[in-house]
Structure formats: C-alpha cells, structure tokens
Amino acid sequence: MPGIEKDDRRVKKTKKALRNGLAELMVHKGLRNITVRELTDKVDIHRATFYAHYKDIYDLYEQMEEEVVTELNDLIMLNYSQPPVHFYKIIFEYIMENKQICHMLFGTNGEGSFVTRLNDLLEEKCMETWCKEWQHSEISEELKFKVRYHVQGCLAIISKWVESNFTYPMNQVIEIIAEIDRNMEYFVMKKQKMDAAFK
C-alpha cells in the first residue's frame, strides 16, 4: 500500500541518518562520550524519533555492528574459495560501499568487538579451507597458530587502510594482502613436504 511504503522509506531514511551521524561522531570520540541529544541534534531528528527505533546509543551501535558482521559473514562464506585477489576485492568493495560505518567499526574509537568477531569468522573459514586444501584430518595446534598469525596480519592491514581514511590505493592494498596469502601458502606447503620427507 502507498502509505505503508512511504512510512517504510521514511523509517529507512531516519535510520540511515542516525547511523551515518553516529559514524561521523565516532571518528572524533568514543561511543561512551556521545549522547542521544548530541546525535539527534547533529542529524536534525527529534529524540522521540530516535527512541522509537533504539533503546540508547549502545543499541544503535550494536545493531549497526550486527548488520555489517552478518553481511561480511555472507560474503566470506560465499567467496572464501576464490583466488585471494578476487576474494579481497569483494571485501574491500564492500568496505568502500559502507565507508562511514566501516571507518567507525574498524577505527580506534570503536567498541572492539567488531574486529574480534570478524577475526573469528575469518579464522574459522581459513582453518576449514586449509584443512581441505592440505588434507589435514584434524586441526592441529600448529595450524591454529599459523591461522591466527595470517588472519590478524590481514586485518591489521585493512584496519590501517581504513584508519588512514582510504588514502592508499585500494588495489595496491589488495595486492599486498594477496601476496601475503601466496607467501603463507608457499611456506605451509614447503614445510609439509619437508615433514613428509623426514617420516
């Protein structure tokens, strides 16, 4: 119905304004230092409208984080088997399409849970993929250490790129991470061959 569609568009527009406003504020200050009044004044929305959608600032932040984690999880699950350059291109394009929110979530003023959750998603998929590719029957402690080193290194590069306000060319950052991927695979395969030769 036309009236319902108009209301839906209005709600989406309001939520988008609040989310973008919070992302902008968090470039300069931590979440705990931002008030509902400060946010609603910034985006010119009545406080009652804010409370119609969110309990408080933390609820807004958590919903934003949950949405991005869910969308990135879907992209990771669908594309992790792609060659590194293609996989990271998909992830980086998502970040560019959601610049403000990703700047907030990856930034130093974020609450910290986002990068941890993303790390866990990537570690799980990385271990699953490496076990299959290198025919590991079980996940060893050694593999866990290698995966942790690899994933956290990649995320550190992405975080640095985001925190620098995307100034370094995206394709060059993708190539850096893809090269790290290739080197890591070479190292693991070489070690496996050496281990097999000594058995």
UniProtKB/TrEMBL annotation:
Domain HTH tetR-type: 12-72
InterPro entries linked: Homeodomain-like_sf, HTH-type_Tx_Regulator, HTH_TetR, TetR_C_Firmicutes
DNA-binding region(s), chain positions: 35-54
Coiled-coil portions: none
Pfam family, one: TetR_N
Keyword tags: DNA-binding
rRNA-binding is among the record's keywords: no
Protein name: TetR/AcrR family transcriptional regulator
